[in-house]
Design a protein that fits this description.
- This protein is an all-alpha fold.
- It is 71% helix and 0% strand.
- It has 20 helices and no strands.
- α1 crosses α3, α10 packs parallel to α15 and α11 packs across α13.
- The radius of gyration is 21 Å and the shape is elongated.
- Belongs to the annexin family.
- InterPro entries: Annexin, Annexin_repeat, Annexin_repeat_CS, Annexin_sf.
- It comes from Aedes albopictus.
- This is Annexin.
Length: 321
């Protein structure tokens, strides 16, 4: 991933960790009449994913019970979604989100774009392998069955093509590719979409940064302006997502958090997914970018758009601003 910044998580491993104590606390919170949701939140939001896996194993070892099953039986709605999301290993959680985006009637293309366009080749290979193990279906085949046209071809390239290594930054090649993109888009009648797909899915993120600057130097227009002028639909959204992520991962996710809370109603699925996924990666950076971009803290924005235990859980993961 681009490393122009130092990733800062909001959730860190707790130092005085005792899986047995946490097991006892969680069982007490769910045993008998009623559920102590706050106790569950206090434990699970203050542990790293690795520690949560240890808790889950200890819970089974000591009590002979499945922690995820118990949590699922005691919780519901958005609170259930975020807590169960915390309990899954990160790759499993991303696979689940991809499956949900394509399962049933209709496809959530925005989820596919958010996840698939913001991964390194290594991460995509791991997701692809695990997805088939979990759902007995190749991810690329599932994606192809749910998408079409240039958008489908782009996602297929992302899933089947390995990006060049981060060290493969070549100014001469970037200059050549900038010319190719210009000729495939603004300089021609019509657009050669395949040229954009091949270059933006094969080059390393680091090389793409150099390429975007080369394009601006050649054409006096940003790559963002070129994409907007030449492309449309989900294909445009996906390529724009790659560019946005290369420019700044924190800004990429801050923008999507803002969009999830903008307007009438809240996209709780996106809000949950980003907070869960980025909490142990760079959510601190995302928070800072969110406040810079929108002049309000992420915590306050979430508080105004959510309520109850669900909102408290998200705010616990986000941390104090």
């Amino acid at each position: 991933m681009p490393l122009k910044y130092t990733p800062k998580p909001t959730v860190l491993p707790t130092e005085e960790f005792d899986a047995l104590t946490d097991t006892t606390t969680l069982r007490a919170a769910m045993k008998g009449f009623g559920t102590d949701e706050q106790a569950i939140i206090n434990v699970l939001c203050a542990r790293s994913n690795s520690q949560r896996q240890q808790i889950s194993a200890k819970y089974c070892e000591e009590l002979g019970r499945d922690l995820l099953r118990d949590l699922k039986s005691e919780l519901s709605g958005n609170l259930e979604n975020v807590i169960l999301g915390l309990m899954l290993p990160p790759l499993n959680y991303q696979c689940l989100q991809l499956f949900k985006a394509m399962d049933g009637f209709g496809t959530n293309e925005r989820t596919l774009i958010e996840i698939l366009c913001s991964q390194s080749s290594e991460q995509l290979q791991q997701i692809t392998k695990l997805y088939e193990e979990l759902y007995n279906r190749p991810l690329v085949e599932h994606v192809c069955s749910e998408t079409s046209g240039d958008f489908r071809r782009l996602l297929t390239l992302l899933l089947t093509t390995s990006r060049d290594p981060p060290s493969a930054v070549d100014q001469d090649l970037a200059d050549q590719q900038a010319k190719l993109l210009f000729e495939a888009g603004e300089a021609s009648w019509g657009t050669e979409e395949s040229t954009f797909s091949k270059i933006l899915t094969k080059s390393s993120f680091e090389h793409l940064e150099v390429l975007f600057e080369a394009y601006k130097k050649l054409t006096q227009r940003s790559i963002e302006q070129a994409l907007k002028a030449e492309l449309s639909g989900k294909f445009y959204e996906a390529l724009s997502a790659i560019v946005e992520y290369v420019r700044s991962p924190p800004r990429f996710f801050a923008k999507r958090l803002y969009e999830a809370m903008r307007g009438l109603g809240t996209d709780d699925a996106t809000l949950t997914r980003i907070v869960v996924c980025r909490s142990e990666i760079d959510l601190q950076n995302v928070k800072q970018e969110f406040e810079r971009m929108y002049s309000k803290t992420l915590e306050n924005a979430v508080k105004s758009e959510t309520s109850g235990d669900y909102g408290r859980t998200l705010c616990a993961l986000i941390g104090k601003s």
